[in-house]
Design a protein that fits this description.
450 residues; alpha+beta; 4 domains; two-stranded antiparallel ribbon; 20% helix; 11% strand; Multihaem_cyt_sf; Cytochrome C; signal; Paired_CXXCH_1
């Protein structure tokens, strides 16, 4: 009877094994090599317990028979994040938690048995598809992409679990950016002038960290992005005479170094050099730019602001309502009789009473006795001559910036033939006969000069 009973039990075991081939077997047989779980472990990067065949680290058998038709014979050894925290350090000690971490749903991002990418992630090292499963994809599909975004390296900047910084950044914005932009940091340390948003604020004040439709990942095109902090310049940009570089693609960046500089005003170089970077040819623009570099090259006498390298003393670099981007009023025409306010540009630095009195002994040395010859030339109601009829605005080989070559008068340059003496001088221009003048011993002129 005992032999028959043993045979029956053995036959029953064979029947169960035949029906349930994955029944728990000897401890040295791993689940991933059994007939039921052949797909587990077939990935490039396996979870360590899977790699070692230690399924019991996460799974516990709740029924001696496995599998059970219509029921489960295994359960997890813990629920949610508590399962992972059996081996991994727990999160939740920092200010910001990634929502899946906060909800204890590690499997939202990680494959529990293995994944194509590191850290049991699906999709290899490109994390784009994984992150876009929850996040809005629009910012990541822009024309211009941040380098890490372009290759799906989201965790280069963001911590995937928790952080003390906003947006789960691995560190403060400034520090996060400089971890890659090391060349920028090196130059920044030697800069005399730093743009306040770079020095005091986050890089994201001006740049989108993921993508933009605008070069350099700017939030807005130039000059709009600059006007958010420099609203006072808006009026200049809509002036009658705009500075053309501001209308070009580079905008403010055509003249300014947007992060830091060795020059005042964050200029890309010394002020005069920046201006002459464009004003060194007469082939650009319609009408063509004046070749100022050629005009001043080799000249013995420079206008004071040019000598100091300050073009902005006379010109507004952003825009102006006046002729040639001038800071103040000055006639655009060659002839313009003086009236109050018309010559404000020149009279801002030069003697303010220069053109107010027909006779003087103090306001000008260009006089015949007491007769103010500036007044004679400029205040003439019929044909008042502007300053540039005799003087060069930037540089000259002649004293007092008197033009040696003469002013352009249509197709002819009117020669001045100016000569200076200790107490006066003389000129014999193409517009009148030779005249002398003397402050101490006045010359006597004919009736035509009255």
């Amino acid at each position: 009877m005992e032999i028959i009973s043993m045979n029956v039990r053995f036959a029953g075991l064979l029947l169960v094994t035949a029906i349930f081939p994955c029944v728990a077997q000897a401890a040295d047989v791993s689940c991933k090599t059994a007939e039921c779980h052949t797909s587990i472990g077939g990935t490039q990067n396996m979870h360590e317990p899977v790699k070692e065949g230690d399924c019991s680290g996460c799974h516990k058998q709740t029924n001696p028979l496995h599998p059970l038709k219509g029921a489960k014979s295994f359960a997890m050894t813990a629920q949610g994040a508590a399962l992972c925290y059996q081996c991994h350090d727990a999160f939740g000690k920092k200010k910001a938690l990634h929502p899946p971490v906060k909800d204890g749903e590690c499997a939202y991002c990680h494959k529990p048995h293995g994944g194509a990418g590191r850290f049991l992630l699906e999709g290899g090292d490109d994390q784009t598809a994984l992150c876009m499963g929850c996040h809005d994809a629009a910012p990541f599909k822009q024309k211009v992409k941040h380098g890490p975004v372009a290759v799906g390296a989201c965790t280069k900047c963001h911590d995937p679990h928790e952080s003390n910084e906003k947006a789960l950044l691995k560190g403060p914005v400034w520090e996060s950016c400089l971890k890659c932009h090391a060349d920028f940091l090196k130059s920044l340390k030697g800069a005399a002038f730093i743009h306040p948003p770079v020095k005091d604020g986050p890089c994201t004040s001006c740049h989108n960290p993921h993508g933009s439709a605008i070069p350099q990942l700017l939030k807005k095109k130039m000059p709009d992005v600059c006007l958010e902090c420099h609203p006072g310049l808006a009026k200049k940009l809509t002036a009658k005479v705009p500075h053309k570089p501001l209308q070009d693609e580079g905008g403010c960046g055509n003249c300014h170094s947007t992060h830091f500089s060795k020059s005042k005003g964050l200029l890309a170089g010394e002020e005069k050099d920046v201006c002459l970077g464009c004003h060194d040819t007469d082939k650009l623009g319609k009408p063509p730019l004046r070749n100022i570099k050629k005009e001043i090259e080799g000249k013995k006498f420079l206008h004071g602001p040019i000598e100091m390298g300050e073009c902005k003393a006379c010109h507004s670099p952003h825009g102006s309502d006046f002729f040639r981007l001038l800071n103040k009023s000055y006639p655009a025409d060659l002839y313009a009789p003086y009236k109050e306010g018309l010559y404000d540009l020149c009279l801002e630095c030069h003697e303010k009473n220069l053109l107010k009195f027909a006779e003087t002994t103090i306001y000008t040395n260009f006089r015949n006795g007491k007769r103010n010859l500036h007044f004679v030339h400029v205040v003439d109601k019929r044909k008042g001559r502007t300053c540039r009829v005799c003087h060069e605005a930037h540089a000259s080989s002649g004293e007092k910036l008197i033009s040696k070559e003469g002013v352009q008068f249509g197709e002819w340059k009117i020669p001045l033939n100016f000569k200076i003496t200790p107490t006066g001088g003389s000129c014999a221009p193409g517009c009148h006969r030779a005249f002398k003048y003397d402050r101490d011993k006045p010359e006597t002129y004919g009736a035509e000069t009255k």
